[in-house]
Amino acid sequence: MNRPRITDVARIAGVSTATVSRALSRPERVSAETRATIERAIAETGYRLNHAARNLRHQRTGSIVALVPNLANPYFSQILSGIATVLSPAGYNLLVADTRTTNPIRYGDPSHADGLIVMDGSVPPSVLAERPTVVVSESIRGLSAPCVLIDNEAAAATAVTHLADLGHRRLGHVTGPRGNVLTEQRLSGTQRAAAARGLPAPTVIEGDFSLASGRRAAQRWLEMADRPTGVFLASDEMACGFIGELQRHGISVPRDVSVIGFDDIEMVEHLTPGLTTIRQPRGAMGCVSAERLLGILGGDGEEGDTILPVELILRASTAIPR
Amino acid sequence: MNRPRITDVARIAGVSTATVSRALSRPERVSAETRATIERAIAETGYRLNHAARNLRHQRTGSIVALVPNLANPYFSQILSGIATVLSPAGYNLLVADTRTTNPIRYGDPSHADGLIVMDGSVPPSVLAERPTVVVSESIRGLSAPCVLIDNEAAAATAVTHLADLGHRRLGHVTGPRGNVLTEQRLSGTQRAAAARGLPAPTVIEGDFSLASGRRAAQRWLEMADRPTGVFLASDEMACGFIGELQRHGISVPRDVSVIGFDDIEMVEHLTPGLTTIRQPRGAMGCVSAERLLGILGGDGEEGDTILPVELILRASTAIPR
DNA sequence: AATCATGTTGCAAACGATTACAGCCTCGAA
DNA sequence: TTCGAGGCTGTAATCGTTTGCAACATGATT
Fold first, then answer.
1. CA A270 to CA B272: how far, in whole Å?
2. Do residues B62 and B93 make contact, with C-beta atoms less than 8 angstroms apart?
3. Residue B242 DSSP symbol
4. How many cross-chain Cβ pairs, A to B, lie less than 8 Å apart?
5. Cβ neighbours around A118 below 10 Å, total
């Protein structure tokens, strides 16, 4: 037996399909008794709306696609989770596409989704121009879409100020890859905050956000004559590698050196010592980006970027210098 | 200016919409020169197919929905990632729904998706009966859908056998919540393997898979007169809590006690000591479940469950007993 | 009694594709 | 010349809704 259609309901209720449709979408425009009859007919047939047909008629899809560079990465899945909590009550489906395996062009196509939330800065702007778009976490050059970001410079300053508050004067900073926007902003915040406290410019070690580059940074630190007593690393992954390598050489954290990371990825809470770090509000970033996209879709979208506050998470890896 | 439709292409190419449609879906049924003309017209107009219309006509959606209990949990996002790598090349969209925020009934609706991949054992079978379904990781009682699983009993036996191989004779096992299928299977595998090696029955401590319950298990361990020298915990999270709490009491892992976990979640590689554990092939579980679903959709679906092999990951938390 | 506003309902045309069926043309065989 | 086969194309119905417009009934107003 085929799935019941709206005409089946109409026939059984003895009304036209137009009336059934109205009873569903704007019940107040249908008389109470007709509505009751229709409801009975719906129950009897087990009728359920065909969304493909409705979407065709409405010229919309009811879906939002989220473009992530790597679905397996917890950083993104937490943002996704935030997005889902907003989209679902709003009646939108969440379509997820991993840019490693999916051609983003496919989702730029308006017949797939009503809007895009992009977490991958490397997606070409031309693909995104066709649909309402919100960018999260990174900004994309040449695209005039609203972004949901954190203030990386201020966040870095917070980290450095924390070290300064503890009494550290010789500071180190391990950066992300050169040229990356995040890298530059965090570096600049680091230098600004140190200067503001009247401290000498922090020693800069170049990294690339990866665990391995954190380990290399540790080797650099070990070789130094005048070792910084407080080190701020631009990612938690690097901080993990850094601490692990130091411990392997008998250095104690935080007794010999205080370490502060960036991101607050889940695992660093469980390290020994627990890592002091800057938490990015990933869930909130997801929520806000979804809300802003809904705003645009609803026609009352605002201009400009949203900057979300970060939080300094104090754990055991930072302490007063010896 | 409106989006070009197939009629626009047809008009410009001087053919009927039927011919344009055929040129797109089965080019060999259209003469080469007509095809060329059509292609020119498509390029000229910038025409792109409207998927809503095609789907309506084809009575399909082109989407698969994945039902996860918690999108922010890396365990699931890695499975999702595997699913995405298979679905995307097959031309399907991946719709993700978090069962905490979305009513699963909504996705049981055939007009949303062509099939379901379920990662949440608590979804009522009635919701799933309407569409082809594959269950991953847990099995759902009362649902005759193929499952993609690991052999939890054998995996637990592998863990225990590893401890036995190292020479441990007094073993402990921290379980998941009672009543859970996984809990029972891992417990039974633990007991069977100990018996097979002629060891006394392992001391059982009840947990619930959470970090906190791992900490509580550590307290229980500390109170014991005759402490097990090797402990197998049914989740890595519990193992983290367990080790952390022991270290806080000056107990050294693995010198004083060997610890083995279950899952190989990302962070445990970076603990000190690195956690020996049983790795679930999460990416593969995702791939296989997606492939099986595509099989069903394609009409040549096979019956029965797929059991994937686990892997013992040796790290630093297990060693020969003192 | 005529007019009008109001509330309900139905008719039929969209939305944008796909495809069964039939028609036309060409060419080779009888 | 006639016929049939095969290749290509067009006509029109269809997928399941939504919605502008018009029609109708009812009761209030003049």
1. 10
2. yes
3. H
4. 135
5. 29
For residue B120, with 0-12 CB atoms within 10 Å meaning exposed, 13-18 middle and 19 or more buried, which class applies?
buried
Nucleotides of C under 7 A from a protein CB: 7-12, 14-20
Chain A closest CA to B225's CA: distance in Å? 28
**pLDDT tens by residue, B105-158:** 777 787 889 999 999 888 888 777 778 999 998 777 777 789 999 999 999 999
Please say whether the beta carbons of A39 and A24 come within 8 A.
Answer: no
- Tens of pLDDT, residue by residue over A192-239, are 999 999 999 999 999 999 888 999 999 999 999 999 999 999 999 899
> Which pLDDT score, from 0 to 100, does residue A102 have?
83
Give distance CA B5 / C1' C19 (Å): 18
pLDDT at res. B1: 61
Chain A residue with Cα closest to B241: A270
- Per the structure block, which two tokens stand in for A122? 């490397």
CA distance A314 to B9: 63
Residue A176 host element (H or E): none
Question: Which alpha helices (H) appear in chain B, and where do they start and end?
Answer: 6-13, 17-25, 32-45, 51-58, 74-87, 105-108, 125-128, 152-166, 181-196, 211-223, 236-248, 282-297
Please report the domains of chain B, with CATH numbers, ordered by start residue.
6-49 (1.10.260), 60-150+283-308 (3.40.50.2300), 152-281 (3.40.50.2300)
Strand arrangement, sheet containing A63-68: A306-308, A147-150, A133-136, A115-118, A63-68, A93-98, B93-98, B63-68, B115-118, B133-136, B147-150, B306-308
Q: Which of A53, A55, A81 sits opposite B72 (nearest CB)?
A: A81
Tokens representing residue A121 in the block: 């800065």
Burial (CB < 10 A; 0-12, 13-18, 19+), residue B39, is middle
